[in-house]
Design a protein that fits this description.
The radius of gyration is 21 Å and the shape is globular. The protein has a seven-stranded mixed β-sheet, sandwiched between helices. It has a five-stranded parallel β-sheet with strand order 9-2-1-10-16, covered by helices on one side. The chain has helices spanning 17-28, 66-70, 109-114, 120-141, 151-161, 165-168, 175-185, 197-210, 221-233, 262-269, 275-282, 320-326, 374-384, 400-406, 459-473; strands spanning 8-13, 33-36, 48-49, 58-59, 86-87, 91-96, 102-106, 215-216, 237-239, 253-258, 289-297, 311-316, 339-342, 357-365, 392-398, 443-445. It folds into two domains: 8-85 and 216-285 and 414-473, FAD/NAD(P)-binding domain, CATH 3.50.50; 89-212 and 287-406, Polyamine Oxidase, Chain A, domain 2 (Alpha-Beta Complex). The protein has 15 helices and 16 strands. The chain is of the alpha/beta class.
């Protein structure tokens, strides 16, 4: 039975994918939910804007969305009915080399393996079990630590996933396959020698083989807009331009869920927490930052490797050693950074005027770095696509500090809400029976600083909302 009447049953602070997921689940359960956003538009990392020239639509943060279509929660929502359309490039990701060739990840495991030559059987042995088991283990992998529903399948995955990418890549024979795997693992945004860096590579490759790496037609903001539209259709309420700095600003509610990281949570509600919980949050560790670029282009990027022209994502870092060196970032940015590049306008005509194009890219830098990586990033693109610099019409960049200024959840430019190394893989943001509960009754954290971490999947918000629904509203789940 619910306690006394409040203004709302639940309030969610922050309208990123996790905040939206939390708000939707609670609204689906018949609660009255208010979603608050500090900026004038919703979305968190799901925003798009004309950053360079009129008519050129750029994704400000995330651009390619394998985890959005692989999300066990998002896939249950009727988002197509609310204007969301995905475009699926023929090649999920391409990894070009200096000799003009490229390794690729395609939808078919078998076709991808065949293209890897002598590594064909090794790739099949690695990925076929993961692809087969993924539908069974996805809810457990994308959730908090608990006894899995399919323990044998989870064990098969965990045996590989908990190793370092540097170690697991040794099973491949060719430099090309090693580099391809290293590029996937570099999405972990930490040194490839760290334990569990293989996990993100396996998840992303399995997602490519099962669902693809899609581009939202019109921009990443279309995902946020569809989620918000569905939430409102259920009766939910959204208020923008409402930046929360303290609990006292909020209307009364039985539960408040924060799509923020520990640093902001302490500023807003730290006075309500126990000393041990505050102590844990104060010691939460943030990871590397990013330097991000967008270009308005007079023509498509003419990569030397033809496979790149069919890929939504292109990884620029020719060898595993080069990528490993780049991801070892500590005090100084890499001089030859590993660059993650997306070219949405190749597949989505709505992103640029006729005959023109957009491109998006970023590299990893030390947390809080203000170093301008423009030249280093453009040199990497030019290396694999001679003439690239000649077709640039305009450019826009954001260093790690500017990323945080744009989105306060990106502390020091950390887009994962905290480093996801073995020390924080299962205990983010604190060691507790439920990572989503704080020490204060009715206050929860639902951001990427909770399991399963960064990415546009909404599962942090989904699990936090489930916890609040059980604790406060006595809702039961199968």
């Amino acid at each position: 039975m619910k306690p006394e009447k409040r203004d709302y049953d639940a309030i969610v602070v922050g309208s990123g994918p996790n905040g939206l997921a939390a708000a939707i689940l609670m609204q689906q359960r018949g609660l009255s939910v208010l979603l608050l956003e500090g900026k004038d538009t919703i979305g968190g990392g799901l925003r798009s804007a004309e950053l360079t020239l009129p008519g050129f639509v750029h994704d400000i943060c995330s651009a390619i969305h394998p985890l959005a279509v692989a999300s066990p929660f998002f896939e249950t929502l009727p988002l197509a009915d609310h204007g969301l359309e995905y475009i699926y490039p023929e090649i999920a990701a391409a990894h070009p080399f200096d000799n003009g060739t490229a390794a690729v990840i395609k939808n078919s495991v078998e076709e991808t393996a065949r293209l890897l030559g002598v590594d064909e059987q090794v790739y099949l042995n690695l990925m076929l079990p993961v692809v087969k088991d993924w539908p069974l283990i996805a809810p457990d992998v994308l959730g908090p630590l608990h006894y899995p529903e399919h323990p044998l399948a989870m064990a098969r995955f965990g045996f590989k996933a908990l190793t370092s990418a540097a170690y697991l890549s040794k099973q491949f024979k060719t430099p090309e396959t090693k580099a391809l795997f290293a590029g996937m693992a570099a999405h972990a945004i930490q040194p490839l020698t760290n334990l569990a860096t293989s996990a993100i590579a396996l998840v992303l490759m399995a997602s490519a083989h099962l669902k693809g790496w899609p581009i939202p037609k019109g921009g990443s903001n279309k995902i946020a807009n569809a989620l918000a539209s569905y939430f409102i259709s259920l009766g939910g309420k959204i208020e923008t331009d409402f930046y929360v700095k303290s609990m006292e600003q909020l209307p009364s509610a039985h539960a408040v869920l924060f799509d923020v990281t520990p640093k902001q949570l302490l500023q807003i509600a730290g006075h309500k927490f126990s000393s041990i919980y505050k102590w844990q949050l104060e010691r939460y560790r943030y990871g590397m930052g990013v330097f991000k670029m967008d270009w308005a282009l007079d023509a498509p990027i003419l990569f030397t490797a033809p496979e790149c022209h069919k890929a939504g994502t292109v990884h620029l870092g020719a060898t595993i050693q080069e990528i490993t060196d780049s991801e070892q970032v500590s005090a100084f940015p890499a001089t030859k950074p590993f660059v993650l590049l997306a070219q949405p306008s190749i597949f989505d005509y709505t992103r640029a005027p006729d005959g023109k194009h957009t491109a998006w890219a970023y590299c990893h830098v030390p947390n809080g770095s203000q170093t301008d990586m423009t030249e280093a990033i453009e040199n990497q693109v030019e290396r694999f696509a001679p003439g690239f610099k000649d077709v640039i019409l305009a450019k826009h960049s954001m260093n790690a500090v500017e990323m945080e200024e744009y989105n306060p959840n990106y502390i020091g430019g950390d887009i994962n809400g905290g480093v996801i190394d073995i020390g924080q893989l299962f205990t983010r943001p604190a060691l507790r029976l439920s990572p989503y509960r704080t020490s204060a009754k009715g206050i929860y954290i639902c951001s990427s600083s909770t399991p399963p971490g960064g990415g546009v999947h909404g599962m942090c918000g989904y699990h936090a909302a489930k916890r609040a629904l059980r604790d406060i509203f006595d809702h039961r789940f199968e």
